Every structure is written in structure tokens, then in C-alpha cells.
Amino acid sequence: MQTRHLAIMLTDIKGFTSKTASFSRAETLDLLKRHKEMVLPVVGKFHGRLVKTIGDAFLVVFESPTDSVLCGVEIQNVLKAHNADKSPDERIEIRIAINSGEVAIEEDGDIYGDAVNITSRLESIAEAGEVFFTEAVYLAMNKKEVPSSEIGYRQFKGIPEKIKVFRVLREVPVGAGSADMPVSPVSLAQGGPAAETPAAAAQLHTPKLPERAGFWRRCAALALDAVFFLIITSSLGLRSCGPTAKVSGSKTKDVPDINIENIRINRSGLEITGEDGEKVVINKDGTDVTAKDGRKWKWNKRNQKSEIGVGTNKKKVPLSMLLWALYGGLLVWRFGATPGKMILKLRVVDFSTGEKIGVDKSFLRAFFSLVSLFLLLGYIWAIWEKDKRTWHDIIAGTKSVRI
After folding, report:
1. Distance of alpha carbon 280 from its chain centroid, rounded?
2. Residues facing 164 on adjacent strands
3. What residues are paired with 364 via a beta bridge?
4. Higher local confidence (pLDDT), 317 or 293
5. In this prediction, what percent of the chain has a pLDDT beyond 90?
6. DSSP 3-state assignment of 260?
7. Least CB-packed of 67, 125, 272, 345 within 10 Å?
8. pLDDT value of residue 219
């Protein structure tokens, strides 16, 4: 077994499993055949060697990191032209990831090593139609031939250190009278007019990445959200309660205690249902209580103030904590930020991809924010943390950025 330093490319078709779920075997084979016929000639053009085919994926190696990136760009261009007049089921959209490093080469030509593993991890976060590559490739390639943009550091499973990731800029603005004309990286690489123009080269730029949210800005956003939260809960008359609830007042001596079974919150207010059908409804107009035998009590703002008291059961669940988690989880899921963050121009994004987070991470982050709120320890932790992330951001795999 020998070892060599090579550029490794891994490609796969976006959504292949879901796309072919409704295909016959013949249709699936036809898709793979068309994919192979378009990709492999380009690989050969840039002196690449196909190591193996893994279902819808190709593992390819190159002697030159520059050739590997140029090959990835041309593959995407070929597929873009193919997809132009095709229906969604006929389109072939692939993700391309490239890394460079030392690999072990078996007698049959297969390759192994950390460099291959990193390529596989990078491919999992690559976007369809794009070419992603690592810092190892960026440092070794000819940067004048391919304009690129830094995405940032990413932590991959099973890889101890973080990896800096880049992507190819598919279209870049050029100057000298043609500022509105997009130029392909392949055109630049082949020495087209845009590549020869100094003004055009000066126009190549890297987009500004979102800044990390500072500690004091995040604290200010937290304070604003606390104010908004108190206003909302106060306007609905909501307070913390546990497994038992009691309505108290000067005229409520005969109102029974209620063993709580269910709590429902909606626009109209708070509804607490007991084990035997008892019900307490609290809204902006007052409080209604219905006993299990059908008797009813009603208080409104004009004649009586009412209060939901906290039971003495040690198993009480603070409703306000649940509401706080729902407040943060729902708003971050739907809008990417809470009102406090929106005012201070902050947004919560996925730590690995920088994209909007899903419902699972939104609520995981929201519930663990309750842990970070204890003496603000989770927020103070962000002062020393390498990526300036709080406890709940680390647990949920998210980060706060300025927009």
C-alpha cells in the first residue's frame, strides 16, 4: 500500500432517494446513466481519476487541486445547461465537495484516510449546484483562476479540529463597462477577456460574512424580550401554576379546588381543565369557573378581582418557564429571531451551515435557554467560548449573528 497527497472530490445527486422513490428500475438506471455520461467526460478533461461509484455518488482524485476545483465548476455548468428545459423529476442537481490531503491507496486503486473522511463530511453540508472545498485546497490551488468565498469554520463529526470551508463564486461582477455582465469562473480560468482586465480582477471580492453577535448586544436583546414577555403574559393575566389551582376572592369560599389535568393557551387566554371536567378560563374580560357538577362562577373587572393561586404540591411546573420556552422557540422557528433580537438586528442560524434553523433546533435551543438564564451563566460563558456561543447555542448547534 502506498500513500500520496491528492485532491479528493466527492459528488452526489441531491434528493436521489426521494426522487427515485416513484421511479421504476429502468427509470432509475436511465437517470444514473445520464448522470455518468455528463460527469465523467468532464472528470477526464481535467485529468481526474474515478476511484469508485457509490450509488449516485462519484469519488474522484486529482493530482492538481486547481484542476479539481475547475472540474467541479464545469460539472455544475454542464448540469445547469442540462436542467434548463427539464421538469423537476428530470433534473440532475449534484453537490460537490473537494478536500486535499494524504491518502492510502490500495492495490485496486481505492483510497482511505482522514482526507477522504473530511471530504465526505464536507459533502454532507454542500449545497446543490455549488462547489465547496476546504482550506487545504484553497491554500494549494491557483487562486487567480477561480474566485472563491470563505464560508467559515465548521465542526464535523469525528474530526477533532474545525475545518475552514470555502465555496466557488459562480458569478462575479466585473468592471470596465461591463459591470452588469456575470462571468463564469471557467471563463476566467481559460483566460477570457474579463480575466485579462485589471479592473475586472479588482472587482473580485468576497461577500461580507455575518458578524457574531456581541455579549452586550445579546444581553440587551434578552432584556427587551423579557419586557415583551411580561407585557404579553400580564395582558392575558397568566401566572405560574402547578398541578393544583385555586380561585380566591371575597366571594369564593364555596369554590372547590381543581386538580389540573390540562392547560391550553390561545389568543383568547388561558384555559385550565380539571380531572373531573372542572374548568377555569382566564381572559382579558375576567375569570370563569365551572365545577364538576355544572355550577358556575364568574368575575369580571367591574365587580371582582380574581386570582389563580399556586398550589402547595411540590411537583408544580412553573407555567411562566414553559411560556418563555414557547415564546422563544416559536418565534425563532418562524422568523429566525425574537422581537428583542429583531430590534437589535440579530438572527439565530445553524452553526454549521449558517442557514435558518428548523423546528427541532428552535425548541431545543429555547428550552435549554432556561438553563443559560440561571445567573446568566450560560450567557457569560459566551465571553470565553471560542465561537462566542452560549450554552443553549452549543447544545442546539446554533449561533447568533448580526444582520
Report:
1. 40
2. 153
3. none
4. 293
5. 30
6. strand
7. 345
8. 86
Long-range contacts of 298-304 (CB under 8 A, 24+ apart): 299/249, 304/249, 304/250, 304/251
Q: DSSP readout, 139-174?
A: HHS-TTTS-EEEEEEE--TT-SS-EEEEEE-S-B--
CATH architecture of 2-170: 2-Layer Sandwich (3.30)
- Pairwise CA distance, residues 273 & 269, whole Å: 13
Distance CA(98)–CA(61), nearest Å, equals 9
Task: Tell me if residue 256 falls in helix, strand or coil.
Answer: coil
The CA angle 347-213-394, to the nearest 5 degrees, is 80
Residue type, 338: T
What mean pLDDT, rounded, does the chain reach? 78
Q: Give 199-244 pLDDT, tens digit per residue.
A: 343 343 444 456 777 888 888 889 899 888 888 877 766 554 444 4
Cβ proximity of 210 and 197 under 8 Å: no
State how far the Cα of 184 lies from the Cα of 191, in Å rounded to an integer. Answer: 11
Contacts of 277 (CB under 8 A, 6+ apart): 290, 292
In the beta sheet, which residues pair with residue 297? Answer: 289
Report whether 278 contacts 247 (CB < 8 A): no
Q: Where are the alpha helices (DSSP H) in 264-358?
A: 319-335, 339-343
Q: Let me know: does 62 contact 7? Beta carbons within 8 Å.
A: yes
Report the C-alpha gap between 61 and 102 in whole angstroms. 11
Using the predicted structure, report yes or no on whether residue 259 has a pLDDT greater than 60.
Answer: no
pLDDT category of residue 245 using cuts at 50, 70 and 90: very low
Q: Where in the chain is the domain with CATH 3.30.70.1230?
A: 2-170
Q: How many other CB atoms are there within 10 angstroms of residue 242's CB atom?
A: 17
β-pair partners for 99: 8
The whole-angstrom separation of Cα 221 and Cα 204 is 36
The C-alpha R_g of the chain, in whole angstroms, comes to 29
Report pLDDT digits (tens) over 104-150. Answer: 999 889 999 999 999 999 998 998 899 999 999 999 999 888 888 88
Residues 6+ apart with CB under 8 A from 258: 244, 245, 246, 272, 274, 278, 280
